[in-house]
Design brief:
- The chain is globular and about 55 Å long.
- The mean pLDDT is 95.
- Strands 1-2-3-4-5-6-7 form a 7-stranded parallel beta sheet.
- The protein has 280 residues and is α/β, with parallel strands linked by helices.
- It is built from 12 helices and 7 strands.
Length: 280
């Protein structure tokens, strides 16, 4: 239902979705992000990459609050993926929000044990909104990568970001760069604000300008030198191909890009739905 609403994607079988993953690989994608919470996503990813596993970087997540459940969660992910190890396991955003710094570090301690016995190589942490806590976590030096919501439009998953949160997002990026922690940018389209939802959010926006929004949003992110790479949710082969075309073309952020992002963002901010959105 979510994909049907946001992406206009029809229901697909596991095999059809796995074929889409393989299409992404065939078009040059090598970093794949998944999670226990994403229904069948780990199974789909494992099936799609089965024949090319050694040529990919695969990251999944744990979303348990009890340290005693960490190993079971990681092993369940490996079983679903059909793999004996992954490249990274990340502490999922809900854990950070619910348990805070101290609780997250307890989960980290268990992950460190599993890393040391070879179930994965790197430990990460993710967030859409808890940037202050994630800043403290990055500063411990115990994390190898962080997956951060990072978009021109000041939005997490379903909230607008406060000035305080935006400040801590910048601090996260700075600290990660200082400590050589990899930064993976997510929500690059602002949860489809600049993507497929744009035609519904501002129906009367100039169609030619609308088509340039995804590229401008991607260029805004990749021109931040603190960002290592992006993960973008895609539900159509054509969308994969369109995004690949952006990334393999001229990447400097232009003044036209900035003007477009500013103009469209101003229009979106006028929508009642956005005005009523919670601010964190």
């Amino acid at each position: 239902p979510y994909l049907a609403r946001v992406y206009g994607a029809p229901p697909r079988s596991v095999e059809q979705r796995a074929a889409l993953v393989r299409h992404a690989y065939d078009r040059g994608v090598r970093y794949f992000d998944t999670a226990r919470l994403y229904t069948e996503a780990e199974q789909v990813l494992g099936l799609g990459l089965k024949e090319v596993r050694t040529d990919c970087f695969i990251a999944t997540k744990v979303a348990v609050y009890d340290p005693a459940e960490v190993r079971q969660s990681v092993e369940a992910s490996l079983t679903a993926l059909g793999m004996d190890r992954v490249d990274a396991v990340q502490i999922h955003n809900p854990v950070v929000i619910k348990t805070g710094f101290d609780g997250t570090m307890k989960i980290h301690a268990e992950l460190a044990k599993l890393r040391d016995v070879g179930l994965f190589r790197f430990i990460g942490v993710t967030t859409h909104v808890a940037y202050e806590t994630v800043y403290r976590l990055i500063a411990t030096g115990g994390f190898d990568l962080t997956l951060l919501a990072h978009c021109f439009f000041p939005k997490g998953k379903d909230t607008l970001l406060s000035e305080r949160n935006l400040k801590f997002r910048e601090l996260c990026l700075d600290k990660a760069q200082e400590l050589k922690v990899g930064v993976v940018a997510m929500k690059v389209m602002g949860v489809s604000v600049f993507g497929r939802m744009s035609k519904y959010l501002v129906p009367d926006y100039d169609p030619a300008a609308r088509r340039r929004l995804p590229g401008a949003a991607m260029r805004w992110v990749v021109n931040d030198q603190r960002v290592s790479l992006m993960v973008i949710g895609m539900a159509h082969a054509a969308e994969i191909d369109e995004n690949r075309a952006v990334i393999t073309s001229d990447l400097p952020l232009t003044e036209e890009d900035r003007a477009l992002l500013n103009d469209y963002t101003a229009r979106v901010r006028e929508i009642d739905y956005v005005k009523k959105m919670p601010i964190e």
